[in-house]
Amino acid sequence: MIKEIAIDGLHIHDIASFYEEINRVFMSDEDWKIGNSLDAFNDLLYGGFGAMKDCEKVRFVWKNVERIQEALGYKATKAYYEDKLQQGALFNKEYFREKLIALENGIGETYFEMLKSIVAAHKNIDLVLV
Known about the structure:
Belongs to the barstar family. The chain is an alpha/beta fold.
């Protein structure tokens, strides 16, 4: 049986609100929330808790996807990389510097594209963009 889970781009205005929407949809039955990170999002998609608990196949629908794409596009991604570079030794600065340069040169992934890549790596999830 395939479970359908949907997020709505009308609720997403930036990276933080993406994770608010993910927590609203996926974690409503849990007493904790995932953090605002790509790693946490990836971990969520492995299942075992929240809306993905006991799911073998998932149809993940992104409604109003143009809003998500815009909110998590170039501007948000650039700010994300710049923030990582400002945070000192917590992150691999060279990695994020290279990612920022690629983005600025038009060859790097946006945050939206990174999220899609993460979902695509989970073969039990069908991503539907509407």
